[in-house]
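Structural prep section.
Before we set up the soaks we want a predicted structure of the protein with FE2/S2 (inorganic) cluster in place, mainly to decide which crystallisation condition to try first. Input record follows.
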Amino acid sequence: MSEPTTAPSAPTAPLPTLEPVTPGWTLPASYYLDERVHAAELATVFTDTWLFAGHACEVAEPGQYLLFEIGDDSVIVVRDADGVLHAHHNVCRHRGSRICDEPRGRVRALMCPYHQWTYGLDGRLRGARLMGEGFAKDGVRLGAVAVRELAGLVFVSLADAPPSFDAMAAAVTAQLGHHRLDRARVAHRASYSVRANWKTLVENNRECYHCRSNHPEFLESNFEFGSHGDPRRNDTYDDTLAAAYARWRADGLEPADVSFPGDEGFRVSRLPLRDGFVTETMDGAPVAPPMGQVGGSPGSLRLITLPTMWAHANLDYAMTTRLTPVGADRTDVDVCFLVDADASDDDVDLERLTTVWTATSEQDWALCEANAAGIRSRGYLPGPLSPVVEASVQHFVDWYLRRLTGSRTPRTSATSA
Ligand code: FES
Ligand SMILES: [Fe+2]
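Run finished without errors. Recording the tokens verbatim:
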């Protein structure tokens, strides 16, 4: 058996004829509803990038693994006995069976349940019974998938030649590294199935236009300013931000607003919380022991990595949200709450820890499902985005269209729809 060690790319779906997009307006309905667009996205937007797979603390010990699934692909992310993190296609090199079924666990080896071919954690075939004397198992290994760790977060790329990870790793580590998510534990996990296209969820995340009337819990601790591309001036907020930056610099937190530099799909920015709030809780008081070395009042570090992940890292806990598109009109969501690895259950007030982000997340999914219901209707037409508070939505749409079309740019219409 001669061995390519990396699985060949999945066949790419042809890009369907795309409806014209009017700059400054929302996308036509087909972008949210057409399964051919969804298939094309899987082959482009979700392949030629780095995707958030999970947390390093979930695969901290030898043999610990998590499954990362998107489209038809399933990836085993596993730590070997030497501490090296691997990602393998979850596809047996015998006849192609899935090997792992459970979303996470701990194993000594990876054994295919079909005919019991057995692989080491590094992906090399260790045993294959009854294959005859001429069978050479040396060199047979699971297809490799690119994997990187970044300040306690794990990313994979399904691309044959993944894009550079360096700019995102450097910028994010400089700020998120202080929170030590690499030595955390998952205190709570919630999964949702949202009847809306994944882009509807990202667009909703990219603006706070909707916050005032929909997110009372979020606005207890947060300002509605500070979003990417929001040009509004507010003297009170500006004074708060300046004082916070001075404090964070003194605490060594290296604060910076790094928002989608070049064509990169990430933003990392530390934002202040309201007076008297040291974390994103209803009363501003911590609900778990401090994480890492972040001083006494680090505000909230916001991270987004397009196309599927955002996170907030606070003094005492972090929240990560991961989107998994499972169809043109359906998105699975995993929301995780992390605390310091040494925090015992008695140290953590789980109800108060989850109040803000459970409420805010569920409010957002309801908003997205209502938005998606309108997009499904024959009454939907693209609408105008606000240049004041939805510039980041426009930025995301532009980023998405470039990824979707590669060199091909959808024809833009001179007239608004
Ligand atoms: S398909 Fe895996 S052992 Fe046969
Ligand atoms: Fe929201």
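Observations: The CA atoms of residues 79 and 85 lie 4 Å apart.
Flagged for discussion at group meeting.
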